[in-house]
Amino acid sequence: MNALTFSLKQAPKHSINCSGLTPDNLANKSAAEIASIQITYGNRLLRVDEIFEISGNKPQHIHFKNTSSKLDYLGANMMSGAITIEGNAGAYLGFGLKNGEIHCHGNAEAYAACNMVSGLLRIDGNTGDFLGAGSEGVRKGMRGGTVIIKGNAGDRVGDQMRRGLILIEGNVGDYCGSRMIAGTIGVLGNLGAYTAFNMHRGTLLLKKLPQLHATIQDCGSHTLPFLSLWFKSLAKYNTQFSELSTQRVQRFVGDAAYKGNGEVLILKA
């Protein structure tokens, strides 16, 4: 049995809502039933087989080939199985992901891991703004799971993040950890302005010191022995974080305007 594969027939001019093409939604459906599913393309509905070439018969593992940044909501609300994206993805990748694994070999647009609950999302390239944040009108962002970004991320990473782990090997934009409620965000690259702005709780683990605002307060250098064990535990994710070994950090707390229960840890050689 081969993985169920969707290959774009041609580059789309409009956004395509792919939220229905998940392993749990397609389980126990015949090839004809899958082909006849209607999905939103721009402002109209089209059958899946009008947009994709379909092959394979194993919906527990879905492949998207010849992909485009117009493919939105890939893996949305997924509860089981795996999705592999052999190219770029659109906005809301892994929206509300509840379980399973999504691996994007290219770049993703804004709101990746938005409202995520559990599972694993890997993006080998870059991603846009509001990674792991909450969607419009939702006061809690990512609530669990693990996100690995091999490239860069945009502004507002982890905005209102409630729980979970985000590891970014590249750079991030402004307002990283803004309004963060809990969870952990690790960044190996550079950060933009207003890092930890209005941060309530949670941890930012950084390799480089960003420009911090006045309500983030320096608490001095500390040795945290658990860090070496934590770094080793990340080896299963094949990330550069597992290669770190230092136990020394410069610790900052804040945002003091919100009781100062969040922490920013700057790794020291």
How would you describe what is shown here?
It is a single chain. The protein is built from 4 helices and 17 strands. The longest helix is centred in the C-terminal third of the chain and has 8 residues, at 226-233. It has helices at 23-26, 31-36, 48-51, 226-233, and strands at 3-8, 16-17, 38-41, 44-47, 52-55, 58-65, 71-72, 82-85, 101-104, 120-123, 143-149, 163-168, 184-187, 203-206, 217-223, 248-254, 262-267. The strands form 3 sheets. It has a 13-stranded mixed beta sheet. It has a two-stranded parallel ribbon with strand order 2-7. It has a two-stranded antiparallel sheet with strand order 3-4. With 269 residues, the chain is mainly beta. It has a domain at 110-267.
Short description:
The chain is mainly beta. The protein has helices spanning about 25, 30-35, 50, 225-235, and strands spanning about 5-10, 15, 40, 45, 50-55, 60-65, 70, 80-85, 100-105, 120-125, 145-150, 165-170, 185, 205, 215-225, 250-255, 260-265.
Q: What features would you highlight for this structure?
A:
mainly beta; 269 residues; 31% strand; 8% helix
